[in-house]
Amino acid sequence: MKLNKTSLKFKIIDVFYITMMILPIVFGIVLQVLTKPMSEGIAITGARVYFTIPMPVQDFPVTESQVNSAIVLIVIFFFCLFITHGMTKKIDLKRQHIAELIVEKVDSLVKENMGEYFKGFAPFIIAILALSAFSSLLTLFGLYPPTSDINIVGGWAVLVFFLITYYKMKCGPLNYLKGFTEPVALLAPINFISEFATPISMAFRHYGNVLSGTVISVLLGSALAGLSSMLLGSLPGFLADIPLFQMGIPAVLSIYFDVFSGCLQAFIFAMLTMMYVGGAFDLETYKQKKAQKSAKNKQ
Amino acid sequence: MELAIGIILGCCALGAGMAMIAGIGPGIGEGNAVASACEAIARQPESKGSVTTTMLMGCAIAETTGLYALVIAILLIFVAPSLLIDILVDTMKSL
Predict the structure, then answer these.
(1) pLDDT of the residue at A40
(2) CB of A204 within 8 Å of any CB in chain B?
(3) Are residues A204 and B57, on separate chains, in Cβ contact within 8 Å?
């Protein structure tokens, strides 16, 4: 199929992808404006519950963090479609360079940290990285970041825990159980606890970082509001309501807490996933077992 | 009753503040890590990229204990008081 990038159809599809990237964010902002009570002011709140679906055992609440992570998913999906739209062997679109850069970087990162055996893991790693980074960056639009909800991050950590256990089990369940008694058999209970400490510490690290940024921003915001009302409060008329100190100063903190910290935590979550999963699998033992099995089958 | 609620709120705030003493440990640890990374970069400027990545990873892992304290402090401030006051009110009713 010959691709004509100046054709009308190509342009229409491009515009469709871009609008589908912007629309969910606009939808999220509109939903936020419509449902948030105005009188609340600045406050530290958890994820608000939009509505609950009645279920047999327990009611299923649909919260802000679920809706916002769905928004992030849709945005990333259409971003990927847009960036890979019109790919050709001979590069003639600028966005293809970005797509190739991302793929190459992630491939080399995964190969460096996990070894040749795990090179199929690259899509999973970039998926978790993009999901986490975009979720934290959602605060730039004034939306609730799903990563400051322990349930969302805990879900990812449990997924990583299952992966770790699967790759430990791959050399045989007996080998897995033997791993608990590694230096001395006496340490088995402590090894067992540290096995479950991995997902907990991963979830708490990510969630605590994002949440502490929110808490500090809110504290600073309310302190600056108090300061400006103290200084300007005695002035007559509308002059008393000017938020003098709340303009600009919180944005400086936001660069660190929202942009830098969010991206760094996403990177660290992905790096730890790679290290734990890569470290759980012992390629030498696996190869030995495979060789033994094939030798037995030949006999 | 008011006295009991006051004691609950005050003790929760005190406990939250005391939990954050754990922030000292990660502070010292991360300071050491960054100092060593600076030394390493000064000695071998060409290895700056990998040293920085490793340092950030180590800092994030050293931070974990501080974040546990933070989570406990946040639970003590936002979750614990209402739970404890509910328990108090229930026991007062049953008496």
Answers:
(1) 54
(2) yes
(3) no
**B35 interfacial to chain A (CB closer than 8 Å):** no
* Structure confidence at residue B53 as a pLDDT band (50, 70, 90): confident
Nearest to A205 by CA among B60, B53, B33: B60
Q: Judge: A205–B63 Cβ closer than 8 Å, yes or no.
A: yes
8 Å CB contact of A201 and B64: yes
Question: In chain A, where are the structural domains located?
Answer: 86-298
**Per-residue three-class SS string for chain A:** CCCCCCCHHHHHHHHHHHHHHHHHHHHHHHHHHHHCCHHHCCCCCCCCEEEEECCCCCCEEEEHHHHHHHHHHHHHHHHHHHHCCCCCCCCCCHHHHHHHHHHHHHHHHHHHHHCHHHHHHHHHHHHHHHHHHHHHHHHHHCCCCHHHCHHHHHHHHHHHHHHHHHHHHCCCHHHHHHHHHCCCHHHHHHHHHHHHHHHHHHHHHHHHHHHHHHHHHHHHHHHHHHHHHHHHCCCCHHHHHCCCCCCCHHHHHHHHHHHHHHHHHHHHHHHHHHHHHHHHCCHHHHHHHHHHHHHHHHC
State the best of A204, A210, A260, A276 to mutate against chain B, taking most chain B CBs within 10 Å: A204
ipTM surpassing 0.85: no
- Provide CATH code, domain B2-94: 1.20.20.10
Q: Which residues of chain A have pLDDT under 70?
A: 1-5, 38-44, 237, 240
Domain ranges of chain B: 2-94
